Amino acid sequence: MERSEPTGFVAMQLMGRLLVLLPVLLSCFAAILAVPARAVTKARPLASLQSFTGIWDMPTARILPDWSVRFKYGKAEPYRYYGVALGVFDRLEFHGQFTETSSVIAFPGYGYGYHKDRNAGARLVLLQESSLWPQVAVGAYDPIGTSLFPSRYLVASKMFGNLDLTLGLGQGLLGGESLDNIARQRQGETFDTTFLLSSPFRQTSLFGGIEYHYSPDLTLSAEYSSLKYEDMFGSPQAARWPVNLGLKYRLGNHVYLQGGFMRGQEWSLGLSGDFPLDPEGLLPWKKEAPYLATEKKRWQAYEADNRQLAALLAREVRNDGFTGVETAVRDHAIWIEFNNSKYLSHAKALGRVARVVDGIAPERITTVYLNLVYLGQVRQCLRASRQELRAFLDGRLDKEAFLTFADLSLYNRRQQQAFFTGEEEIGSYRVPDSLFDYSVDLKVRTFLNNKEGFFKNKIFLRPRASVNPWKNGTFYGELEFTLLNEFDEVLFAPLEPEPTRTDVVLYERESRPRISVLAFDQHASLPFNVLGRFSVGLFESEYAGFGAEVFRLFDDGRFGLGFESEAVWKRDPENNFKLSDTITKTYDSHFLNLYGLLWPDQGIEAGLKIGKFLAGDMGFRLELRRSFKYFTIGAWLTKTDTSDFINPDNRDASEKGVFIRIPFSIFSDRDRRGNIYYTFSTFTRDPGQTVRQPSRLYPMDPYQSVEYTRETLEDMRKN
Questions:
Q1: Of 37, 327, 358, 415, which one's alpha carbon is 20 to 30 angstroms from that of 73?
Q2: pTM
């Protein structure tokens, strides 16, 4: 490892750089400061040329607001940036991107093109800005992995009127180090090979800049850059002068255009979109009409006996858009079970069903039991007197007072005993759900970072159909009709003699129509509130076989425990209904599944799978996610024993990735159920693999918890 420079010498270097910085910045902005701003603006987290919040190449202490996302494109040759950033808790910003370097051809002779590298980083606000103190943050960029652009920094930003001043200390590339020197130091480390945990006494440099908010739409930016561009990956020319200048202009509510002059020699261009994550997105939601029972329905309910009333209520709830409806009525109480197939919020669904019941049921009914069903099991039960329920829905009783008298609980064993015990005649009725259901989705499957191209896509239509011959039993069918297929161009050979997932190209290169799923799935409520699942059939394009699972939640849904097992065989890549003649082994997996809702108020949850994965490798898969405003963003890491694998690319490989789940409602003019799920993972490897199932019990959804329903109980009034 190279010896670090003496602290006094480093301080002299920083003072010298500061003397250079101040006159340059003051001269660049002297004319601007003389012009009065059109409107006073506060500090805004504008994008740098890259995905992170910053000036041009330098970071600031600003971050995106909680649950806001940025999509970014930037260009300053030889670099082109394609990235995304996310703000969390008003304290954290995560950012990641692909950096394309036009001066480096990655694989000469192949169709890949310019070199592309994944980069990621994070920034934590240590001190939020006040009237006296600046905002102070610490951050790191590309500190692990290939580390072609590694930096870490401490930075402060302070607003003075419309002027946002930034000053920071950087190490790594921000410290003016060359990439070769960083690589040599990494090789010399004995306790860790990552730049992030390297010695704090490495070369350090000063950086800073100014952003002047001339108007709410126009910002002028200048920075002193501490980068030595000629020593970076891709070897740009040395900077004529270490200052970058430009402007940022807001084109609409969320879109920003950037233009700048970098290093005294290169023009830059950037485009970014900053969007708050909110379920009411592109279209404003239309207000739903309140439920109004007709006089005829009320009279029918008044004259009905218990069974007739149960049938009338069940049909009315089913006609209002809910599924799985089953009711029971005794002289003074109503029991109703239903699936929330209508709203994002379970509390809102409870409120809507309560309105229907209260609008129709005769006054002899004084107690209401509302049961939310999930996969054939009652997951939440709300028992309330009709008088208190009506007062809460009408706003005459607050949530705390209502919950004092009402009972909202996980499962419903106590409520079942209270309702179904006695000598009164009970009338029950179940509305038959639609026997047949179908949908057609447009899907894109991407193979990333292959020698023949960075993105290779397969675009196809996926018709899906399901048949429900009896309660909680479903037959699933799924077809794929290919519209565009670039997987036949991918160069990716299986890594093992009996590969688990690295033979994926064999299954995706064909463009003929293919049955991807043809399976049966049965759920059952077992003793002690345990939910069970059994599946059999064609699970995905690669595998067919059997799957089984049991799961139970505890502590109002905050924790869960379950077991899962699969036994599958390889399908023939060219024949829908035939197993592979080449690979005949049984791939089996067995897991202990653990779940925890770690921070209910913020929707932060974790899941841990421990056991044997498909290739026989023992290990774990840890998943962390945050679900907020019905969006979910998360990441996973799978680590297993890879000693039995032959190929070196599989040895010590750990699967990891990130994903986002977006509610359909952002594209709709109303509140509606359903999500779009997109996953971005690392290179395909054989360790740590699982097989897709028709459904899963192992939950990763805080909205199923009783605690979340309690927190959002006011949603019951939104009907």
A1: 37
A2: 0.86
